[in-house]
Amino acid sequence: MNFKSKKFYIGLFFSALLIYLIIHQLDFSEMAATFKKCNPKMLLLAVPVYFLSYITRAVRWKYLMMGKENYKVPTLMGIIFIGYILNSFLPARIGDFYRAYLAGEKFGTSKVTVFSSIVLERILDGIVVLSMLLLSILFFFHQPWMYKLAFSVAALFGGSFILVYCLFKYSNTDVLAQKLKNFCLKYPKIFKEKFINFLDNIHKHIKSFITGFEVVNSPKNLSISLLATACGWTVETFFILIIIHSFSGLSIGFPAALLTMCLGVFSALIPSVSVHAGPYQYAFILGLGAYGVSKEIAITIALTTQFLMISFIVICGLIALVRYHIGFDNIKDVETKLDKTEN
């Protein structure tokens, strides 16, 4: 069983467990009644707000790649949509790898370098959303389990950023590669050439990967990236708030949407099947439940939010695929190449 298969079955287990906890003693008649209270006009208002969050993501990605002129925001946004549509329906976050592949092809940049910028993008998401979660806990909502969650996430993303910074600032791959080559010189010629070629190839990829963290050495680009990240998640909080208010009878405000958004983001850390079935809905139960919203109403809001998000991503992703003349055969070819690299 390869890594992808193991990850699928682990995700299937967690999704099944959480879905069972969600539907256990769930009142479906209350969910149906809640759906009838939804205001479609309010939902339409949420769409342009959600689109704005993708503009901030594209701006952030541009500056993570040092804000070079040829990295156009509309092009980056199209690539992001393609990556997100693949992440929504394919396992192992294949969309992130395809984003790196497509951006590398479009801009003539090392695909490994682009991929490391996506890794840094995820780390910044974690740091910014964690900061928003801490604000939510300190000012609006006090529960011991929330503090434990915050500290765990802080250790994960804070440690990841420190590692990235140290890799870029202090790692000297050239010296290490040369020492390994000198060691290989002791082997017979038939093995020596293979080892040296192998080391050269690995060294090239490691240098390309570390180059993608160049932004940590640029206060201006890093600050813009952090600001764009904060703006993006603030916009997404308002997106969730609009959906909450589209259901009549709910008077909860921004703090509830903020807590729910943060928990929804961190639910992606839990392995699951496609479209985050299970963890994402459970995050809404916890977030909205903290403000007295019943499980049935929370699930209804979660499903509505997810339906809007996925529909929007699918439509924009398909438009981008047509725009760049990309067929599903191209995506399958890239996935096959990645599988061979993994094996």
Layout: helices, strands, pairs:
Blueprint: H1 3-23, H2 28-36, H3 40-64, H4 73-89, H5 94-107, H6 111-139, H7 144-170, H8 173-184, H9 189-211, H10 219-245, H11 254-266, H12 279-289, H13 295-323, H14 328-342
Helix pairs in contact: 1-12, 2-13, 3-4, 3-10, 4-5, 4-13, 5-6, 5-14, 6-7, 6-9, 6-10, 6-11, 8-9, 10-11, 11-12, 12-13
What do these coordinates show?
With 343 residues, the protein is mostly helical. 79% of the residues lie in helices and 0% in strands. The chain is built from 14 helices and no strands. The chain is globular. The model has no long low-confidence stretch (mean pLDDT 82).
Provide a brief overview of the structure:
The chain is 79% helix and 0% strand. By secondary structure, it is mostly helical.
Order of helices and strands: HHHHHHHHHHHHHH
The N- to C-terminal Cα distance equals 11 Å
User: Which class do the helix and strand fractions yield?
Assistant: mainly alpha
Number of helices: 14
- State the low-pLDDT regions, or none: none
Assembly annotation: single chain
Q: Which descriptor suits the 3D outline?
A: globular
Strand content: under 5%
Sheet with most strands: none
Which percent range fits the helix content? over 70%
Radius of gyration: 22 Å
Number of strands: 0
Mean residue pLDDT? 82
